[in-house]
Write a structure and sequence with these properties.
By secondary structure, this protein is mainly beta. It has helices spanning about 5-20, 130-135, 140-145, 150, 250-255, 490, and strands at about 20-25, 30, 35-40, 40-45, 50, 70-75, 80-90, 95-100, 125, 155-160, 175-185, 195-205, 210, 225-230, 235-240, 265-275, 280-290, 300-310, 310-320, 325, 330-335, 340-345, 365, 370-375, 375-385, 410-420, 425, 430-435, 440, 445-465, 470-485, 495-505, 505-515.
Length: about 525
């Protein structure tokens, strides 16, 4: 490459590096070091979500209900002022619930499948794949097999979305599901086998659904998979699952462990679509797999991407499948572009399995929908059960001691955090310092989200070079929105480069913003 070209590239790179960080009026969380220049004596720590005391919120109680529920989608419908839930019934269909408060749930009395259900139920989709093989009464098989392909091969739901951008009322609600054809025989094959893909269905009201009668995406091989709409790209983004991915780094780090051979290599791929029907690339791009820091048999089960405060939060569903420990906690990751992901150094659970004796001890399934905001509370609806995920390891209590007890196959749970409180910069007795990089804002009053009920938080406004301009001290507060109008020079520095420096002792700092 010519020297002149190298010089141009170097200058371009330098100019890009020198571009100031624009925060506008957006909230700034501390999940990564994007805005952090320097810290000392502070620890970035995941703040576990608090499980609701009313859990489990829904348990099967009618004879026609499934053994349990899994893969929930919950949204709050602003138009109807109603919480809505769709949950998969372990392969016998999708069941619909409503609630006024998100805690107490009703089963709407529907009868959408009189050929199958003898009375009213809240079933809105009747699965074909699983019932046809295992559970359909002989007198119902002809009906099941006569249905259109999308329902015959419907395996399990994996997400319901109410799409405010959709111009076709018939497609206002969108559903992704696992398409399973157990008798698929491709051209040239000598016998049939199992074919798995992603299917789609649409609805005007979330109750009456019409399937697409062919698979829409071949990239994902199991569920849960997750879809959201990327406003910047103006595309749907899918995070699905593949298997067989064990990095060379991980193989090297765990080469001495004979159990490495049992790692199935579950990992996450990514696809995009403009219309929810045509997804590219065909097999997806690999975006996340377990690494050398994980235990030998940890895999990445699935990933939920949630747009939040100008970035994307990743809810990483890890499958820890060790001989002495089987669990599926939800950890955290962060992305600035909804494509490249960074898992947090602190991999302690944001939402973990229940403790001994609890209803969600064995498996938790993450929501296939975004958190629901209620005031300054963020709600995470999930499902859990008290039996283990399938594993090659044998445990005394599964199923030997519990064999005579009907397994608790799954129910809806709720966990909450206060707004922005995913991660804290924690300061202990030794005062900790966090100084930001220079940034440009568009607001007038600084706000912080902090917990120092018995500690101290100081906030200093600095100029671009780091010289102090003003300082305030906060004590005895635990609030998600502490306004600091005392920093009067913030407003005068709108559109100019400034820094902030926080001091934390015996407390937690979660976020800040200027509006």
């Amino acid at each position: 490459m010519k020297p002149a070209v190298l010089l141009v590239l170097a200058l371009a790179a330098s100019a890009t590096a020198a571009e100031p960080i624009q925060i506008g009026k957006e909230r700034q969380l501390f999940l990564d070091d994007h805005l952090i220049e320097h810290t000392e004596h502070l620890v970035r720590r995941v703040q576990p979500a608090k499980k609701h005391e009313a859990n489990p919120l829904i348990v099967p109680k009618e004879a026609w209900e499934p053994e349990g529920y899994v893969v929930p989608s919950v949204l709050y419908d602003e138009e109807e002022k109603l919480f809505k839930l769709w949950a998969d019934g372990y392969g016998i269909g999708v069941f619909y619930f409503t609630s006024k408060d998100g805690i107490h749930w009703d089963r709407p009395a529907l009868r959408l499948f009189p050929e199958f259900d003898s009375g009213p139920t809240n079933r809105v989709i009747l699965s074909g794949s699983e019932i046809d093989v295992e559970d359909a009464p002989p007198d119902k098989l002809d009906y099941m097999r006569s249905r259109e392909a999308g329902w015959r091969y419907f395996g399990h739901a994996s997400g319901v979305i109410k799409d405010p951008r959709e111009t076709d009322p018939a497609k206002r609600y969108k559903m992704a599901f696992l398409w399973i054809n157990r008798q698929h025989q491709p051209p040239g094959a000598t016998r049939a086998g199992k074919f798995i893909a992603m299917g789609a269905a649409f609805s005007p009201d979330g109750i009456h659904w019409t399937p697409v009668n062919e698979p829409v995406c071949l990239a994902t091989v199991d569920l849960p998979f997750h879809i959201n709409y990327d406003e910047k790209r103006r595309r749907w983004v899918l995070y699905g699952r593949i298997t067989g991915v064990v990095s060379e780094e991980k193989k090297t780090a765990h080469a001495s462990d004979p159990n490495l051979q049992y790692n199935m290599g579950r990992a996450v791929i990514r696809c995009e679509s403009e219309d929810f029907l045509h997804w590219t690339p065909e097999k997806g791009d690999l975006v996340m797999a377990s690494d050398a820091r994980d235990s030998t048999l940890t895999e990445i089960y699935d990933l939920r991407s949630v747009p939040y405060a100008g970035l994307h939060l990743g809810f990483v569903h890890a499958f820890i499948n060790e001989p002495d420990h089987v669990a599926l906690p939800i950890q955290l990751a962060v992305s600035r572009d909804n494509r490249t992901w960074q898992r947090l150094d602190d991999r302690s659970p944001f939402l973990g399995n229940g403790d001994l004796g609890e209803w969600d001890r064995g498996v938790i399934s993450p929501p296939t929908s975004d958190p629901v905001a209620v005031g300054d509370e963020l709600r995470f609806y999930y499902t859990g059960r008290n039996t283990l995920h399938s594993t090659r390891w044998k445990f005394e209590d599964n199923p030997k001691l519990l064999g005579h007890i009907a397994p608790f196959r799954g129910s809806l749970g709720l966990a909450t955090i206060r707004r922005d409180r995913f991660v804290a910069m924690e300061g202990n007795f030794r005062p900790g310092i966090l100084r930001t990089k220079p940034f440009v804002h568009e607001g007038s009053v600084l706000h912080v989200n902090a917990a120092v009920p018995f500690g101290i938080l100081t906030v200093s406004l600095l100029d671009e070079s780091g010289q102090p301009l003003q300082k305030v001290t906060i004590q005895g507060r635990d609030d998600t929105a502490i306004a600091l109008p005392e920093l009067t020079k913030i407003a005068g520095r709108k559109g100019q480069l400034v820094r902030l420096e926080f001091g934390v002792q015996n407390g937690r700092l979660f976020s800040f913003w200027i509006e």
